[in-house]
Structures are given as structure tokens and as C-alpha cells.
Design a protein that fits this description.
By secondary structure, the protein is α/β, with parallel strands linked by helices. 25% of the residues lie in helices and 29% in strands. The protein has 3 helices and 7 strands. A 7-stranded mixed sheet has the order 3-2-1-4-5-7-6, with helices on one face. The radius of gyration is 14 Å and the shape is globular.
């Protein structure tokens, strides 16, 4: 997802529903993102993300927030990553259109943003599993 979004040193990456933190950790550790923010409602998952960030030596480069992603201000993001169901993506569309700046990349694993035209759809092979990753760019999705 981070590769498809072409994350680099000027990016601020938000992962909505960050789980164990693998995306935000990789964003700062492997792609040198300026900042990465993980948002999740689960205390257990946020604790796991914190432990994983400490283990990778990047705890100081990430922000973990316990919040409903619909309530989280994402306006500073230059990249937003999602692995949410299509219905959740539908709820986020108006929020993204209001808060995200033109050019912000939205990357959704497996589930599309209905009504938006993806800039790119990448089929990822993982053993016997096939995944689709959708790349949208705010201002270019209609």
C-alpha cells in the first residue's frame, strides 16, 4: 500500500483502523515518512502497535490515537491507508472530500471507494491469495 502511494520523506501517513501498527511503522521505518498516525478504537491493538514500534525503534516517529476514525481530523494527511469494508469507506468519502487537500493519496486494501474512479488498481499476489489495492487521489477521483 505504501509503495503504491509512493510514500516519501515529505509524507504524513494516516492509517485508519491501524491494528498492530504495521503500516505506520513501515511508513516511517522503510519509507522515511515525516510522520505516521495510527487511529484505532481497541486499547489492545494500540498497545500492540506501541510495542511493535518500540521493537523497530520508531516509537518517537509515530502517533497512536484512540478514536473513532470518523471523528479523527485527517486534514494534515498526505496519504491515508484503509483496510475497511466498503460500507465504512462509504462513510469516510464525504469526510475525505471535506478535509483532505487535493493531491492526497487514499489507498484502500481490498475494498473500493464506491463512486470514485481509482487512479490505479493493483493486483497483489501473496502465495495463493490475490488482493486488490485501490489508489485514489483527492481531486482526481471523479
Amino acid at each position: 500500500m505504501l509503495e503504491i502511494a509512493k510514500v516519501g520523506k515529505e509524507d504524513v501517513v494516516y492509517d485508519l483502523g491501524c491494528g498492530d501498527g504495521r503500516i505506520i511503522i513501515s511508513a516511517v521505518a522503510d519509507f522515511n515518512a515525516k510522520k505516521a498516525v495510527g487511529v484505532d478504537l481497541s486499547d489492545e491493538r494500540l498497545k500492540e502497535a506501541e510495542q511493535n514500534a518500540l521493537a523497530r525503534g520508531v516509537r518517537d516517529k509515530i502517533v497512536l490515537k484512540k478514536n473513532n476514525f470518523l471523528d479523527e481530523d485527517v486534514s494534515e494527511a498526505t496519504v491515508v491507508t484503509l483496510f475497511l469494508l466498503t460500507n465504512a469507506n462509504d462513510l469516510l468519502k464525504p469526510k475525505f472530500e471535506k478535509e483532505l487537500k487535493p493531491g492526497t493519496r487514499v489507498v484502500s486494501h481490498e475494498f473500493e471507494m464506491r463512486g470514485w474512479k481509482p487512479k490505479e488498481v493493483v493486483k497483489v499476489e501473496d502465495g495463493n491469495m490475490h488482493h486488490l489495492v485501490y489508489l485514489y487521489v483527492i481531486g482526481e477521483h471523479t
